[in-house]
Automatic annotation (TrEMBL), chain A:
Stated name of the protein: Electron transfer flavoprotein subunit alpha/FixB family protein
Details of cofactor binding: Binds 1 FAD per dimer.
Similarity-based family: Belongs to the ETF alpha-subunit/FixB family.
Highest rank taxon of the organism: Bacteria
Biological processes per GO annotation: fatty acid beta-oxidation using acyl-CoA dehydrogenase
The keyword Transport appears for this protein: yes
Residues where FAD binds: 209, 234-235, 248-252, 265-272, 286
Electron transfer flavoprotein alpha/beta-subunit N-terminal domain segment(s): 2-176
Organism: Mesorhizobium helmanticense
Amino acid sequence: MKMIACTEGRSDRVEAFSLEMINAARSIAAAGDEVVAFFAGQAAKAAASSFGAADRLIAADAAGSDLIPAEAYARLLRDTIAAEQPDLVLVPYSANGLDVAADIAARTGWPLLSYVNEIKRDGESLNVVAQMYGGKVLAECVVKLPAVLMVNPGAFEEAMPGPVDAAKVQQFDAMPAIESSRVKMVAIDVPDYADVDLTTAERIVCVGRGIGDEASIDIARDLATILGAEIAGSRPVVDNGWLPKLRQVGKSGQKVKPKLYLALGVSGAPEHLEGMSHADLIIAVNTDPKAPIFNVAHYGATCDLFDLVASLSDRLQASPGR
Amino acid sequence: MNILVVLRMIPDSAGELQLAEDGRGIDREWLDFQLNDFDDHALEEAILLKEGSGATVTAVAIGEGANRVLQMAAARGADEVIALQTEDDAMISSRTIAATIAATARAKSADLVLCGVQSTEDVFGQLAPYVGALLDWPHVSGTNRVLPDGAGLRVTQERGAGVAVTYEMALPAVLGVQTASKAPRYVSGSKLREASKTPIGRATLEPSGFERSAEIRELRLPTQGGSGEDLGNDAENVADRLVAILAANGLARK
């Protein structure tokens, strides 16, 4: 079986989940199978020096383009698929992967499963576990090869970084595909972390949809102040404009690893868990006992969050030694 | 500009989901269905484009409660509304409906197809890239800003860690909207009543053209709780325990 593990990078760095995709392929590779890493972007050099867990690297070098539009990435991947005839293509569930996976599936007609957590081989097919309904349900599926799988970041360990044997690196120029792309990149905005950087915060109080309305954010903010924590929000809270984008935790926000993560009214969609599940101490409060946040929480409570915030604030303010 | 926007009715994930008896689906009998949140943002982006540049907006809704949501779409400014009939009690697979959406886009001479970037039932793939690939139109997913730009669009996409990328793209195109340029608007009861007179067109699902993506052998609920400790539902007790837990973890002081 030949597998293509799709990898990504921005500027001169590769994304950490790239090594997870290689490891996901490696984990089901038998003797004689081949794991081919596919990379398209500016960091072709970094890819060659870190994707050694793959048997080969096919790198479309986009020197001069910090990021590559998904349309160009998908076109380069299609060419690679046509040349390599793989049995399986693993695409990361990322901003880029969202545009690439179904595009490839539509144009090849191959099966596609998204939000994949587990992959096992079963003869000529794969047994795959995929998430549905915001992580509340797991689907055990049988997929016939060839197929495309869009794999959740964090579902597989990272492969050991190391150089790819120079003879096993096939590099070509990505710029023609970028230049002929109907989607042209005109600007990349990287946020200024001067005001707040959740990624270095030691304590975070995160509010989710359960906070109800904008005025209630202040109650959580007061608790955060008492705890010496940064206030943060899940996507719905930030989309509503109740907190600034820089305070968003999750896939499209920041990935954080504080010593304390207190989640108030956060349901814990997979995209949120991706951003915070490695926190040292996770305390979750949600009235829905089936909320997926409890799957990663060290301590969970199902009481009303406003009652709890009031009680906890009182006790912390009254506690001696503060 | 002619815009086609797709509105999918999906089970309310905040509610309790129960598995069907055969274990291959969820029990849909008592579920609340609501408009996919991302599709709501796609609708808003469509209306904002209409207000900004005089587009016409056709809304296609799929699933239980489609008529209700189409009236809401008309009240918000959609010019034409169509309910797409699907099998009862079937989940809305983006892979399955993509061919019909693509055909509708052609029939309506659409320049732009807008839909939410994801839905909770798109385990077989996301709608925007499927439709884009079928039509061979460029597609961008995860947008949070869409502006008319000459004959095309200027589109901003979220890339994670707060990084945003702005693209220029020609029409026709397909966008998977994550967040509209402005939060979705509320509509008044009087506008809703007025819009309830809007005739709702009917359409049926065409064959997907794709082979089945996978066989769902079994659905299951994730193991609850992991190794976490349940502190219960009494706020006073929970607060007492948390004070102790914070202290034990060296987090009592700032």
